[in-house]
Sequence to fold (119 residues):
Amino acid sequence: MFDTASQSGQAVLFCLCYDFPTRWSAFVNGGGSFQVVLQKNHFPYAGQSAKQITIDAITTYAAANGKVASASQAVPDGFSAALSGTGSAALTIPADPTVMRPVAAQQVFLVLRYHFGMS
Fold:
């Protein structure tokens, strides 16, 4: 199983207001960008014990006008290396008028697509 883990796409889902309530409150009340430090322990157990986690894509989703809207974010330079090396990496997601709106009741979902290696 672990031999093929790096070949298959993995994903982890966060609801920003529930998984990071303090950071969400700072975003809603302070404007600007949503900032969070992600750690290896935010990933499933197999990913936590991996030597290398590589983030392939970052996407946010939210309801907008009765539909699901999405916004792709660039993976920051050095993000995967920091996550794999020190076990944590800072992520900043700018506000936008559709998905990342600073509204307390807005439920924004963050999906990280990744793969990992055991060696």
About this structure: The longest strand covers residues 52-64. The chain has one domain: 2-117. DSSP finds five helices and six strands in the chain.
